[in-house]
Every structure is written in C-alpha cells, then in structure tokens.
C-alpha cells in the first residue's frame, strides 16, 4: 500500500492568513475528493511568501501558529482528517526565533514540523536576515511509505545551513553553480519520497534546469522527489508554478502548468509511463505571461481595481497598455494622451489607434496650458523646459489616480532604467512598472509576439505597426530621437546586459568587440543613475539580475570602471 500524493500549486497573499487558510482548505478538499491521501502545498503557503521582515513580528508569529492549529482542526471537521496535509508557514524555534516551516496536519493535529535548514542569501529572498536555520530532518509515515520533508533551498543551494544574520553571496540564477545541499540524514536509507515545498520565482530558462536538478536528486536519494512551487505575483517577484513529481528512477510522473493555480496527483508506488515534459515556453511567451501575472496580482492584492497610464503613441506605452488590458480587462484600464506643443500628430494618431484596438477608456488631456506657466514663471529652457512636460504628465496621471483610485503604471524599460534615460517625477512616476526588467530590444520582441498571438487567434493585433516600426523618441523637443543621447538599442542592450547582469567591466566588454564608445557611454550612464533607480516604482523581475533586490549599489561613490 502507498499513498496517492497531490501537488497543490496555489497563489496565496502575503499576510492574509484567513484568506490563505480558506484557499488551502478548498484545494485540500478537492484533492481528497479525487482520492489523495497526502496533499502538499508550497513554501509558506499559509503566510504568503516572501514575508521579509514581517517574520520577526511577534504578532504575526502568534497568529501564524494559531492559524496552523486552527487549519488542522478545520480540515478534520471537514472530513479530511485522515488526509495528511503538508503546509508551509511561519514558526519559531526553541529560542523564539522565526523559522520557515513545513507542518504535517493530520486528524486535527499538527503531526510533524520541519524547519528549513538551508537559507538563501540571494537578492530575491535574503532569508538569512530574518530566519534562523533548522537543524533536524523530519519524516513521517503515510500508508506504508516513508516521506521526508525539505523546503526550497534545502535541495537547491550550495554550502551548509546558515542562521539569521549570516548573509552570504550566491551566484546569479537560482540554480547557478549549486551543488546538492541535502543533509545526509535527509537522504537516509528507506526514504520513499522527498516532499519539497518550493517558493522559486520566475527567471528565464530556469524551469528545465530545476527539473534536471531534481532528477539528479532522485538518483542520489534512490527515492521519488515531489516539488510543489508557488504561483502568482508578490511585489517584484513572480512565482511561475511548474510543480512536478519524479519517481525513484527519475521519470516524470506528473507536472503542473506554469503561471496558473493547478492540482495534479500521482500514486507513489504505481508503475507509470514517463510523461513527456511540458515544452519550455518561448522566451517571449514566458516573459509576457510572467509580467501579466505579476501586474494582475500586484493590483488585486494591493486593492486596485483599475490602472492608468500615459499613451504616447510609442512602443513602451503600447506594450504596457496591452499587458494591463490582458491582466485587468479593458474596462479597468485608462489610457491618457497628453499632447504638448512638441507632440507629433502621428503619435496622437497611434495612441488613439492603440486605444481603439484594445477597447480601453481613452482620454486626451492637452498639457500646453499647464506647461507654459511653469516655463514662464521659472524661466525654464533647454532640458528644464523639456523635462517639465514629463513632470506635468506625471501630475496629470497622479491627479486622476487620486480622484478615481487608479494604479498608475510607469512605462520605462530596463535599458532606460540602466542608462538613467527617464525624467524623475515625470515618466518615472507611478505605483508599478511592468517592463522595468525588460530591455528595449525585448520590448519590441514582446510586442511582435503579442501581435502574432492575436493574429493566430483571429483577433485584431493590439499594437499598431507604426508604434513598433518608428524610431523611438521622448518627443520633448522638435525632432528628438533616443539615439541623440544613446547608442542604437541593438548595440546598447548587449553591453548593458553584460555589465549589469554578468558584472563585466570595459576590458571584458572590449574582448567581445562591442563598440568602445558605446561601452564607455553605457558604463558611465549606468553608474550615474543609481539614485534614479532607487526612486523608480517596483516591477516584476524576469531576468537573472534585476535592479533592486539583485543589484544594490551605493548611490554616492567614486569608483569608476576601467
């Protein structure tokens, strides 16, 4: 006899203990109705994840402990007491320090508690700051099988367990250069399956790497590996799901999809034909779905029903508007064209065309009468006069937001953020920046992918071809083009990617024959713009190194790359 194990890939909300308990209860009920005897939920499913410094709040610690006990009783009263439900949450150790736990709930009781032993010190999570490490393994019996518990980095991370405050540097990428970190007692003989509660955020190309790494663990343990990942957006992270189970031979026996809640299950001892792994999503589709999920959840979990953004007729605002409509629905998105005396008619036409294709609420608010008094009163000229247009536009959007309750979306991309090519308190204004981790060349690729998807589905292409094809411009002075200040983006973006994400210096960049002038300019601009990036709205991480959690530099420093 062996258990049927269900993997419940859910989307909890940080701090919503009651709502998360309801979510766990409903998915556990569905799993047991389908015949599961063990149901596994993701890391910190009961509290939401990551909770950062909330972990140290005594009130939350007490509430989380009580919520786990109440959930166990509720499951029992609901006829699910015989099922063993494995739930991630927040606990405390014998010294009263917060720990990241997996609790086994059975017959109205908390049967077993395991504390995470290997704490990440990466930019994404930095758990070493707030959690203490566990020191003991945990197993439990289920229908004749012996099941072990692990959480996230217990099997992905290199090195030994670390305690709170023992921060360290890890390579970029959640699996990069990492060796197995399971402690020897977690792989002791006789283990039938290791249940891993995961909280692994989206990063391009990591889903297949995760599967391959788990397959190596099955051979090391001679046991099945069950990995249950979170799904959903949390601030600047997006969890992409993709939960799976491998049998002891490393065969894939069940797998959930990505970017959506899902329940899958398998019989531990039943011989199974290996599933064909779900194909890795194309880069554009994966990034697009990650951003859409992150934006939708940021709005929903933050209490925003509607979003607003400026529509310039350019590619960045066109893509952000399309993402917003896909995430929130056209009826909940407002686009505002804000022409000045400099704005071209073709840009206004392109903004109106986009709004018509998307079916969103479209408004036009001319700003010339607002800009001129600033220019005249302050004697503004040159850059001062140019940037006041962007700042007035920011005030218009924030004013409408204050009156109508919209979430303001900033439309800047990673290339602009890296180079500081934005107006602080102008186009940088907003509550969320959907494409802040997307390079300009990727923006064009995403726009073309989304139009292709629409065309293949027999729908109207959302983004006007003119917005994709025309040279990018901020239109703050007559005839202005981005290339007046920056190299062509197909030259700039590879330099920025190497410099920002891989830490290359000018010498290494020169070895790849990047134009010397582009390298010098990109490095200089990136180093000068840290103060701007600190004030930019949050947005979803999609690359290995995003500004913010992953790359934290002093705003004032005199180091220069040579």
* Low-confidence spans: 158-180
- Please report which band the strand proportion falls in: under 5%, 5-15%, 15-25%, 25-35%, 35-45% or over 45%: 15-25%
Number of strands: 18
Task: Please give the largest β-sheet.
Answer: 6 strands, mixed
- Derived from helix and strand composition plus strand pairing, the structural class reads alpha/beta
Instruction: State the CATH class of the largest domain.
Output: Alpha Beta
> What's the number of domains?
2
CATH fourth-tier homologous superfamily of the largest domain: Carbon-nitrogen hydrolase
Total of helices? 16
Q: How would you state the average pLDDT, rounded?
A: 90
* Rg, Å, rounded: 25 Å
Cα-to-Cα separation, first versus last residue:
66 Å
- CATH fold-level label of the largest domain: Nitrilase/N-carbamoyl-D-aminoacid amidohydrolase
At CATH's second level, what is the architecture of the largest domain?
A: 4-Layer Sandwich
List the helices and strands and how they pair.
Blueprint: E1 4-9, H1 17-33, E2 38-40, H2 58-80, E3 84-92, E4 98-106, E5 109-115, E6 139-142, E7 145-151, H3 153-156, E8 193-197, H4 206-221, E9 224-228, E10 231-234, E11 237-240, E12 244-246, E13 252-255, E14 262-267, H5 283-301, E15 307-310, H6 315-328, E16 333-337, H7 345-358, E17 361-364, H8 368-378, H9 382-404, E18 407-408, H10 414-419, H11 440-456, H12 465-469, H13 489-501, H14 506-511, H15 516-528, H16 530-534
